[in-house]
Design brief:
The complex is a heterodimer of chains A (about 100) and B (about 170). Chain A has about 100 residues and is mainly α. Chain A has helices at about 5-25, 25-50, 55-85. Chain B folds into 2 domains: about 1-80, Up-down Bundle (Four Helix Bundle (Hemerythrin (Met), subunit A)), CATH 1.20.120; about 125-165. Classes of the chains: A mainly alpha (about 100), B mainly alpha (about 170).
Chain lengths: ~100, ~170
């Protein structure tokens, strides 16, 4: 089983995540794009690990990436909720004042 | 084509299609469901790549944790006057151009096989993937493991404090 399709899929996932982060006008969807990019990296780490069966470094690394991603989502959503409560919008472009 | 090869390409196709759907869906709840499909197909690919523990963690952490959190976030933020707000885009064409540029640049390097590692013929140290990961985490990676625990505690308290309701004093 060749691993080339996995690399191409991971490239595609990373690009789609990047486009979502760049163009979408909704903070929650931007978080989803970041999740997609992190998952692309995880997929690549696991695929590289398969070429070196004697070690599990890639899988352990992917596990830590997953933990950090969950932390980032939890804090990000808490901030989005608080911003929504204050500005009554979750569109990042409309939040343009710095004064408290 | 063997069954394993069929499943391999099938889950690659579902992952790619749900990611593309995530890019074009207008309803944010449907987008969350597309993300869920994408993450579960990735879990299936992890099983096919012989990373069973990673697959279970993917289902528990992403499908059970992140997507539920995101759906709660959608429930609490995206409605104005009971009306769902459709997702709009800014600068779709430049964004797509940047994405396509990154995609074809990375694809160029993948096609040139710059990242082909020397395939080792060693046997796996332990046949049980979960046993191997447990030993690796508690020996070689014990410091990052403990730090992840501290980080999780900090995130738990931070998220609760940031998102918690505050009594407004006048």
């Amino acid at each position: 089983m060749s691993l080339q399709p996995i690399y191409i899929l991971s490239t595609l996932l990373f690009s789609i995540g990047l486009v979502i982060v760049l163009v979408k006008r909704n903070a929650i969807l931007v978080l989803m794009g970041i999740e997609l990019m992190l998952n692309a990296a995880n997929l690549n780490l696991t695929a590289f690990n398969k070429t070196v069966p004697a070690s599990l470094d890639g899988q352990v690394f992917a596990l830590f990436v997953m933990v950090i991603a969950v932390c980032e989502t939890a804090v990000g959503l808490a901030i989005i909720l608080q911003v929504y409560r204050y500005y009554h919008t979750s569109v990042p472009d409309e939040i343009n004042e710095l004064k408290g | 084509m063997t069954l394993v090869a069929f499943l391999f390409y099938f889950f690659i196709a579902t992952t790619a299609l749900s990611a593309i759907a995530l890019l074009f869906l207008k309803n944010i709840f449907h987008a969350a469901l597309a993300l869920l499909t994408c993450l579960l197909s990735l879990a299936a690919l992890f099983v096919l790549l012989q990373a069973e523990f990673l697959a279970v963690s993917q289902i528990l952490l992403y499908a059970g944790g992140v997507v539920i959190l995101i759906i709660f976030g959608i429930m609490l933020t995206t409605k104005v006057g009971g009306q769902a707000v459709p997702i709009t885009n800014t600068g779709l064409l430049p964004g797509l151009a940047v994405g396509a540029g990154v995609f074809f640049l990375l694809l160029f390097f993948v096609r040139k096989s710059l990242f082909t590692l020397p395939s080792s013929t060693q046997e796996p140290m332990v046949n049980n993937n979960i046993e191997g990961i447990g030993i690796a985490i508690l020996t070689d990676y014990v410091l990052p493991f403990e730090l992840a625990g501290v980080l999780l505690l900090a995130v738990l308290m931070g998220a609760a404090i940031i998102a918690g309701f505050k009594q407004v004093k006048n």
